[in-house]
């Protein structure tokens, strides 16, 4: 296995692929309002800021304001501007990211070709040192708690913009701003920006819409999209439906999300053509921005039809499109709404999940092939794997059963085996060894039922990890089982590799005679198949035999 990077291992030599270091999403097109808040944040920006919602709701515009602030500050941070969703604020729906996961993803752009430290303390030191050596702006969206955030705040000259659903104490000197509902004039300007036709609406209807939805920029964007095609009946019918939906929602449950946004989503969904609804619901499978190709595959349709659907969803403001990256994304509230609808249809969810899982595995494998091709393709492989990683991790959690909220599609064992056979070397570059071992142990269960080659490969990788952890007795057991399987499969090259590894491990355990015996068998096989490793192994064997004859 490659040597892992330590904080002292030349941290100044950064590889700088620009696409990896500048990932903050631009603010929404036609960003309106919050000018006083933006000026306040700019005036007090030093080490960073914390933006929260006074009402504790999603959909208040904290992320949009954070991205607008980042756009103003970007020129002052030449080494990078990175955004990551910490997945906090909705504990009943999603699990927030562990600080170690976040540190790895934020460090990866600066060490794209290195293995990051496994030990949490070393990883955190590298994180601190890196961002004190560079000038990087971090946007940490949807922070869960001060405990999560404590391990993620960078040292100067880097700085941070944090958003959170509710305010919590932060040890660092971050300027805190609590967002209140939009001012009436800002809400009106946003509605008219989304739907200029509303200027022709009777004033009493306009006032009611602003009263019901004006507290949330997201709700106004949804409702504004409905009002673009304005006729005499639309405002009256919309307000009547608002009253009915609010009555039903408040009777059904204690409401924890933004009520105005949820009612707006209900209105958009009701107005959506029935044939489009299943496609909107299926987008809940994506936990991160996705491409038009990904949507096409998950939907199981042709590209022309997929493009037409994406245009319709962007027009309704359910889906956001970023031209700079050519990626689409749902706002968290729209995603949660779609997920609730989707998971109520288990058979259809299994079909969508199967398409999604196979797509992300194929994309990850393609990234690995590019990385292994080296030369000019290596950086492209790194970039592609970074883009697909949030999807691959989500697919792994769902397919392995770690995320039980998603029903398993058929043939899960085959998919899990393919993770090891097709992408594990890339996974080993982004995960600590403890998490790699969790994956391998789960795959081993499936491989023992289904695929002897996958079982052998899994045991080989387990042996490598145990060796790196200096658990040589465990490594020896894995390599011995690996040898047994590849012998049965008549794979002479793998058999020689297994014997060489057994010899290495026996040497580490102090059994030089056993090491000598294994290396001799390995050397004979390497010579038989013409493997160039025979020359190096012969040198090692001769050195060992000289030592034994002394």
Please specify the SSE layout and strand pairing:
Blueprint: H1 18-21, H2 35-44, E1 48-53, H3 62-73, E2 80-85, H4 99-107, H5 120-133, E3 136-143, H6 146-150, E4 159-164, E5 175-179, H7 184-194, H8 203-213, H9 217-226, H10 234-252, H11 259-271, H12 277-282, H13 292-299, H14 303-315, E6 319-322, E7 327-330, H15 332-343, H16 346-373, H17 377-400, H18 412-430, H19 433-450, H20 452-468, H21 472-488, H22 492-508, H23 512-529, H24 533-549
Parallel strand pairs: 1-4, 1-5, 2-3, 3-4
Antiparallel strand pairs: 6-7
Helix pairs in contact: 2-3, 4-5, 7-9, 8-10, 9-11, 10-11, 13-14, 13-16, 16-17, 16-18, 17-18, 18-19, 18-20, 19-20, 20-21, 21-22, 22-23, 23-24
Give a written overview of the molecule.
It is built from 24 helices and 7 strands. It has helices at residues 18-21, 35-44, 62-73, 99-107, 120-133, 146-150, 184-194, 203-213, 217-226, 234-252, 259-271, 277-282, 292-299, 303-315, 332-343, 346-373, 377-400, 412-430, 433-450, 452-468, 472-488, 492-508, 512-529, 533-549, and strands at 48-53, 80-85, 136-143, 159-164, 175-179, 319-322, 327-330. Strand 6 (319-322) and strand 7 form a beta hairpin. The chain is of the alpha/beta class and 550 residues long. Mean pLDDT is 90; it is low at 6-17. The protein has a 5-stranded parallel sheet, sandwiched between helices. Helices cover 60% and strands 7% of the residues. Helix 8 runs parallel beside helix 10, helix 16 packs across helix 18 and helix 18 (412-430) runs parallel beside helix 20.
């Amino acid at each position: 296995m490659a040597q892992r990077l330590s904080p002292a291992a030349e941290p100044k030599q950064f590889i700088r692929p620009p696409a990896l270091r500048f990932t903050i999403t631009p603010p929404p097109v036609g960003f309106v309002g919050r000018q006083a808040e933006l000026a306040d944040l700019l005036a007090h920006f030093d080490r960073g800021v914390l933006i929260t919602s006074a009402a504790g709701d999603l959909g208040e515009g904290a992320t949009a304001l954070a991205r607008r602030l980042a756009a103003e500050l970007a020129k002052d941070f030449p080494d990078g501007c990175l955004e990551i969703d910490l997945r906090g604020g909705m504990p009943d729906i999603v699990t927030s990211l562990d600080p170690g996961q976040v540190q790895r993803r934020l460090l990866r752009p600066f060490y794209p070709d290195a293995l990051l430290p496994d030990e949490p303390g070393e990883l955190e030191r590298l994180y601190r040192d890196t961002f004190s050596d560079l000038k990087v702006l971090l946007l940490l969206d949807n922070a869960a708690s001060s405990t999560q955030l404590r391990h993620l705040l960078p040292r100067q000259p880097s700085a941070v913009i944090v958003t959170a659903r509710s305010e919590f104490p932060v040890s660092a000197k971050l300027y805190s701003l609590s967002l209140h509902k939009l001012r009436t004039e800002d809400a009106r300007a946003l509605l008219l920006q989304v739907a200029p036709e509303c200027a022709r609406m009777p004033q009493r209807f306009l006032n009611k819409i602003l009263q019901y939805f004006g507290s949330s920029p997201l709700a106004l964007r949804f409702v504004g999209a409905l009002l673009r095609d304005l006729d005499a009946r639309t405002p009256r019918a919309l307000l009547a439906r608002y009253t009915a939906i609010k009555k039903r929602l408040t009777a059904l449950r204690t409401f924890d999300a933004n009520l105005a946004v949820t009612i707006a989503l209900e209105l958009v969904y009701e107005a959506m053509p029935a044939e489009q609804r299943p496609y909107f619901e299926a987008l809940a499978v994506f936990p991160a921005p996705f491409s038009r190709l990904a949507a096409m595959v998950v939907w199981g349709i042709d590209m022309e039809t997929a493009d037409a659907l994406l245009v319709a969803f962007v027009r309704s403001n359910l889906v956001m499109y970023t031209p700079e990256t050519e990626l689409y994304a749902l706002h968290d509230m729209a995603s949660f709404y779609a997920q609730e609808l989707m998971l109520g249809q288990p058979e259809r969810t299994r079909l969508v999940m199967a398409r999604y899982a196979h797509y992300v595995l194929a994309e990850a494998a393609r990234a690995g092939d590019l990385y292994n091709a080296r030369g000019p393709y290596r950086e492209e492989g790194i970039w592609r794997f970074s883009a697909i990683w949030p999807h691959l991790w989500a697919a792994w959690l769902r397919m392995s059963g770690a995320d039980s909220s998603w029903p398993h599609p058929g043939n899960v064992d085959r998919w899990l085996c393919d993770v090891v056979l097709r992408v594990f070397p890339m996974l080993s570059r982004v995960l600590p060894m403890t998490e790699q071992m969790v994956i391998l142990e789960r795959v081993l269960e499936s491989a023992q039922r289904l695929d002897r080659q996958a079982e052998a490969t899994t045991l080989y990788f387990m042996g490598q990890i145990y060796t790196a952890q200096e658990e040589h007795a465990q490594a020896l057991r894995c390599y011995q089982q690996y040898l047994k399987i590849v012998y049965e499969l008549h794979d002479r090259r793998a058999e020689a590799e297994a014997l060489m590894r057994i010899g290495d491990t026996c040497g580490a355990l102090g059994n030089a005679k056993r090491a000598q015996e294994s290396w001799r068998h390995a050397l004979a096989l390497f010579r038989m198949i013409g493997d160039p490793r025979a020359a190096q192994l012969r040198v090692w064997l001769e050195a060992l035999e000289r030592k034994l004859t002394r």
